[in-house]
Amino acid sequence: MWFDKNVGYLANLQDLFTYDGSIYLHWIGNSALYAVAGGVGSTIVSILAGYGFAKFAFRGRNLMFSLLLGAVMVPLTALVIPTFILASDAGLTNTIWAVILPSLLNPFGVYLMRVYIGDAVPDELLDAARVDGAGELRTFLQVALPLMRPAIVTVLLLSMVATWNNYFLPLVMLSDKTLYPVTVGIGVWQGLASGNNGGGHSLWSLIVMGSLISVVPLVIAFLTLQRYWRGGLSIGSLK
Amino acid sequence: MKKRALIAGLTALVMAAGLAACSGGGGGGADANANAKCTNKIIHKDAPKVTAWAWYPNTQLVVDNFNKSHTDVQVCWNNVGQGGDEYDKFQTAVSAKKGAPDVVMLEADHLANYVIQGALVDISKYGANKVKKNFSAGAWKDVSVGDAVYAAPIDGGPMGLIYRKDIFAKYGITKPPATWDEYAADAQKVKDAGGPLFGDLGGNVPAVMMALQIQKGAHPFQYDPTKPKEVGVKLDDPASKQVLDYWAGLVKKGLVGTADQFTAEYISGVVGGKYATYVSAAWAPGYLTGAGVGKGNDKGQFAVAPLPQWDPSNPVSVNWGGSAFAVTTQAKDKKLAAEVALGLDADPASLENGWKNLVIFPLNQTVLKSKEIADYPLDFFGGQKAYGEVYIPAENGYKGFTYSPFQVYYYAQLQKQLTAINGGKIDGAGAAAAVQDAVVKYAKQQGFTVK
Amino acid sequence: MPTSPAQRAANRRRTLTGWMFILPFTLVFLVFLVAPLLYAFYNSLFTKGLATGTVFAPLDNYIKAFTDPSFLGGVAFVVGFSLVLIPVQMIISLAIALVLDAVTTRFARFARLMIFLPYAIPAVIGAIMWGFLYSPTFGPLGQLFGLVGLKAPFLLDASHVFGGLMNIVTWQWAGYYMIIIYAALQGIDPTLYEAARIDGANARQIALRIKLPLVTNALLLILVFALIGTLQFFTEPSVLRTISNGGITQDFTPNLYAYFTAFSYAQFNYASALSFALGVVVFVCVYIFLFLTRKRGSFLS
């Protein structure tokens, strides 16, 4: 890099993938796991709740939805410290669940799904299916779900990005470095490098290389899926 | 219809419950250490493991040496960060009552903070006193409270003045400054001749400032761990103010830099001859070498002299850093953990690697008294016999410091004021008063009786 | 309204089915939002010192927080930062969105993606990269200033850190906001523009008189998110702190201060109070904002 010109990119790359028992690959793998598990999980939760809010005029709905809108405004990072204490009491700190489970909470995703389903899934269609004898679950899975695709992709992508980019939560929850996502791992490298403590190994080139590579998966995801999310992003604002 | 609604809901419930149920499996089993991930390779795979955190640049070798020679126990080592980063992790684990390693590397100035929280094990009952004879009374006092021993001392940090021979020669400084007055005069001389900065007042190394204040006669804290709720705080006495004012003056005149130390920025300055001197401890060159100092044009250009004095007829030795291995109360097998704490980096081969590379300054008296270390020419210092000439006499003159049980907070406050001094926003006396106020307030809030 | 037993049964069924669908969310909501909030509140009612036990003192931590110069200083910083940052961000993303909406060349499509990309880069990684770029020794800024014989300013030291951070955050988020506004613009019925053009409106007038009013909801949504996000500012200062030469202190923002209070000083009770107090500050700020724009209704509907 600017101060390490002699070393070739390929050598750096090889160094990155083998340093400290290939810890970097571990981190990328962890990030992928957290992003997929947290993203898919919170999307499923959001779809179900969005559908429930949009299509069932049940008692308690308005109260629950106002609470949800209030939740959009609660500083989620301010929840991290009490969540840490609770997770620690439950013995969950320093496990993957301490990162995955809290990321299931995605009030904004529910909000987006509700607004979208309200517009894109006509009541008449659902009623027709019910009249034909389809149960609630089948109506949901076979009639409503296919109509939600753009919103699902958007919510999925947004929540995966949020989990992939998450730093505060895993930073606080995890102390075993083999569980770190790539964001926390590189942050730790930065701390070690600033303290000149790579044990004789210059970490700066690893940090630069590792940062660049960690960006690639999301960039690819955004580029390939842009047809879906570009439309989906306007859901919350057009109403 | 009702049944179907129920199924729909149940499906949703199962999805959520499935995720929650899996979470039960993540907790620690009977022997959490068996599956602990280690940075090092375990050599004797059947032996029980003891987890350890340490950040010495040569820890890999130290751990391998230990594991090769022990079949009854193996060290599983990780580096979770140097200094503050490790302490944050350790403090969190102490608060959470979960997640601490069995053995942890701590600097002497941080022991009191963890002892008062009941986080460290008294290892005197696990044979610590058998190694007492290897250490000076001062070094042993740093790790013990009365008869209780809370850590095994490894290295110390006697301070000296590291300087660049090439810069001194170029600007006609024939002999390193022996007093702080000479230091300021030489700094002015180099500046007037258009030379580089003479030193650096790094905001992020408050422990250096504390040591320099103590050198002038300050006694920042009075604390006796046998009376854990009483603490004396005196951070704005004349000596503390004068030392801060002295450095503030150097900063104001543009004689010393204001960069944080240990950063890539600072290191490149040290390599490039941006600083004529570096006020630091015996272990510092090892960290600089790891970052690439002393390998290029600056090879062999460094030398070390005794730390400048305020009163040369009555020299005072001071210390920065130095560390020890402690056993945590979360250790699964405290006896095995104590064996590791007492045996790690205590074998001759590890110690020799440490002092030859200047990454540790051994406190072990058998090493310190040997002729080999005193006469060893160090590459980093261009062949200078730095241990015999500077560091061992400095260590022998070191009387020990008294630290507070809230050293981390004190350092953060001092760091804030050093930054303010570097920004020209406050003078030394004002900075000392601000630190005193903040620390006294904090101590009272924590329930201490402040004397 | 009279209800027959059959209708009541249908109502009950709908209520049951509705609750079944939102049950997973409700569980997550209770466990990861309501419980931590209540727990933080509960914790915040106790004080704990190194030399004292835990003491029930319901107001102590809050009195301390709202008289603590570290907390108040942090709040003042994030509020000031929001007041400058958000309008700047908003104007930049709105301007780009309007331009990209008006031109439809291949280059515009490419530009749209490039401007959006920083959003896909984790804030930590972005901050580390900017740390390199800002380095007076290694960064291009130092070299640029060096060309004309000047010393580059260090954008993270105490006197420049405001602007240095503003640049990073704007880079990170402007593209995302731009895409949201752009999507809203694309949703406007083009016949409106035709009508305006027939009435003699030029491009600038169309942008200001037609497009802008029609995307106010999108703008409002962005503003609220930007406000909440900025008041909770944490990641960038936390990553850049160690290389900021003291420009970023441990109490630089309220979230950073709460973090260090909890994890460096083991004061979870006070940290809980700080988190809770920050939550109150955010809520008040958002409410004031929504009140000022008198758009509460449309956002909350």
TrEMBL record, chain A:
Entries under PANTHER family matching the protein: ABC TRANSPORTER PERMEASE PROTEIN MG189-RELATED, ABC TRANSPORTER PERMEASE PROTEIN MG189-RELATED-RELATED
Domain (ABC transmembrane type-1): residue spans on this chain: 28-224
Pfam families linked to this entry: BPD_transp_1
Family the UniProt entry places it in: Belongs to the binding-protein-dependent transport system permease family.
Name of this protein: ABC transporter permease
Keywords: Cell membrane, Membrane, Transmembrane, Transmembrane helix, Transport
Compartment(s): Cell membrane
Transmembrane feature ranges: 32-53, 65-88, 94-113, 147-167, 203-225
Organism: Pseudolysinimonas kribbensis
Membrane topology label: Multi-pass membrane protein
Automatic annotation (TrEMBL), chain B:
Entries under Gene3D superfamilies matching the protein: Periplasmic binding protein-like II
KW Cell membrane (keyword) present: yes
The species this protein was found in: Pseudolysinimonas kribbensis
Top-rank taxon, per record: Bacteria
Residue ranges that the Swiss-Prot or TrEMBL entry lists as coiled coil: none
Signal peptide, first to last residue: 1-20
SUPFAM superfamilies: Periplasmic binding protein-like II (SSF53850)
Keywords, in A-Z order: Cell membrane, Lipoprotein, Membrane, Palmitate, Signal
InterPro entries: Bact_solute-bd_prot1, SBP
Protein name: Sugar ABC transporter substrate-binding protein
From TrEMBL, chain C:
Transmembrane segments: 21-42, 71-100, 112-133, 214-234, 270-292
Gene3D superfamilies tied to this protein: MetI-like (1.10.3720.10)
ABC transmembrane type-1 domain boundaries: 79-289
Matching PROSITE patterns: ABC_TM1
UniProt entry keywords in alphabetical sequence: Cell membrane, Membrane, Transmembrane, Transmembrane helix, Transport
InterPro entries: MetI-like (IPR000515), MetI-like_sf (IPR035906), UgpAE/MalFG_permease (IPR050809)
Main location: membrane
Keyword Transport: yes
Pfam families associated with the record: BPD_transp_1
Compartmental location: Cell membrane
UniProt membrane topology term: Multi-pass membrane protein
Family: Belongs to the binding-protein-dependent transport system permease family.
Identification of the protein by name: ABC transporter permease
Originating species: Pseudolysinimonas kribbensis
